[in-house]
Amino acid sequence: MSPQMIDRLSAAFLDTLLMVSASAGVAVLAGIPLAVVLVTSGPGGVFPAPRLNRVLGALVNGFRAVPFIVLLVALIPFTRLVTGTTIGVWAAVVPLSISATPFFARIAEVSLREVDPGLIEAAQSIGASRWHIVRHVLLPEALPGIIGGFTITVVSMIGASAMAGAVGAGGLGDVAIRYGYQRFDTTVMVAVIVILVALVSVVQVTGDRAVRRLRAR
Amino acid sequence: MTGAAIIGWPRAGGQAAPALPAERTRRVAGSVQFQGLGKTYISSAGEVQALQGIDLEIEPGEIFGIIGRSGAGKSSLLRSINRLERPSEGRVLVDGEDIAGLGEAGLIRLRRRIGMIFQHFNLLAAKTVRENVALPLRIAGVPQPEAEARVAEVLRLVGLEGKEDSYPSRLSGGQKQRVGIARALVSRPEILLCDEATSALDPETTLSILRLLRDINRRLGLTIVLITHEMSVIREVCNRVLVLERGRVAEMGPVWQVFAQPQHAATQALLAPLTRALPEDVAARLRQVPEPGDLQVIELPMTGEAAPPLAALAQGLRLVQAQVEPIQGHAVGRLVVLAPQGLDPRSLSSTARRLGHVAAND
Ligand SMILES: Nc1ncnc2c1ncn2[C@@H]1O[C@H](COP(=O)(O)OP(=O)(O)OP(=O)(O)O)[C@@H](O)[C@H]1O
Ligand SMILES: [Mg+2]
After folding, report:
1. Is residue B114 less than 8 Å (CB to CB) from chain A?
2. Residue A137 predicted with pLDDT over 50
3. Which residues pair with B319 in a beta bridge?
4. Is-contact B358 B285, C-beta < 8 A?
5. Looking at the partner chain, which of B127, B136, B167 has a beta carbon nearest the beta carbon of A126?
6. Any idea what the Cα angle at residue B236 is, between residues B256 and B190, rounded to 5°?
7. What pTM does this model have?
8. What is the spatial distance between Cα A84 and Cα A72, in angstroms, rounded to a whole number?
9. Which end of chain B offers a freer environment for a tag, N or C, measured as fewer CB atoms within 10 Å?
10. ipTM, 2 dp
11. Which ligand 1 atom sits closest to the C-alpha of B42?
């Protein structure tokens, strides 16, 4: 592999890291509150609001139903509005975040729903407000599950970020397609695959370890 | 139980009980009144009338037991005290105040005066013992140094020193329930609700938790309302007992009285496991129609009120069984004796009862 190619690969690697971590950040900041609202506004939740619950649920399902590659294209006008461009790392962050947030919210929602209702009752019995219940019971008790879900989300975002590369976002996917596929450079293709596998493994192992540590308490 | 001294901790907020009307001089903090209470659950399976027409008063400082079969409505009744369950009819008064009208803030204030412990402990797995116990103070905004001191104080009270930094998953069932008790007490409540608090524990641990509850009741003077489905738990700690049957009051009274003279079939059924059967040799030979030379088998109930008919034993009666226990200072139980034919059981005691006859051959 030429030195330029190595440079190109490492730049692409950093682009992928940036895309994924920025979008993962958005997914956490938006997804957790969304999951909390989905759980607490549902039937039997601490802030019952059936209409809001239905609307949010439908919205989340809508975004989840659209394949990422379609979303990527469909969101181009919106992306331009937010970032002023449709190519590059930041342009990819918009569709990546918008696709990852509902995905992560649904996974986090499942963990929040699995919190023993007895714990909520115990919190009510000690005079906890509804916000206290979210803050001290729902979130901390669901944390291992939420972190496990976050790991899954990040791994699937790494895959999606490669797809975003195909429409000019840069990153490892971009390199793989332009050099590995279009110019039949097998070495580059293999290098990209190795880097992606390593990245996914690191994310998965880190996530698993965090979950295990929390559950071992 | 009435007029229990206010000893131990100062009440939440530290203020004295409100001034009482002239005719009611006893302490009122920690009283609960149910007036015409009813609860109907409406679920997909239809309506369930869990409680109806409950009228009674739980007195400040007493240990009040609620017993009944599964589904009798015990939890529904208990949970109406801190409004985890909203009644469908009637009223619940805590210290004379109707709790139906409380808004969210009022409800939170009420719940800080009422502790609760659960069958499955309901401790937060993500928090240590200390954090679990401190949570009620933390959410009430009690300043850190005071909170720490109070947490240490209740942990000492329940005997959990040294376990502060453990997570609940590392504790035994008995220790978990002690954490539950500490968490319920740290707000210095006037009332402690226990929903089958010992049902998940082995007999020895059950006994130690019951002793702790009794100790807390004496030292802190707080009212304890306790659900169980074991009469032995009632006998161990309660002052008065309510027997619920299908959502209604079957009977209620001082524990020794209910044990000595259970009026309702439901109570008798609950007491059956505690009543020893007749000795086998007597039971096997028992017959209802006497044959010549038979002896009568006579049961002499000891109700705590009737004078023990011991003098009768001197008149050539043979004692075949005695089961007598002190409950709240009353001797309660029964004696079974063999007596010659012709002796009127009523001459021994007004409550004596002939169980049958056995041959005298031995
Ligand atoms: N949330 C609910 N929805 C519908 N029905 C309910 C609900 N809670 C209780 N019930 C019904 O109300 C009745 C009384 O229930 P409750 O839990 O008060 O009984 P319990 O005496 O505490 O029983 P157990 O000893 O089994 O705990 C039961 O028939 C029960 O099925
Ligand atoms: Mg119950």
Report:
1. yes
2. yes
3. B337
4. yes
5. B136
6. 100
7. 0.88
8. 16
9. C
10. 0.89
11. 4
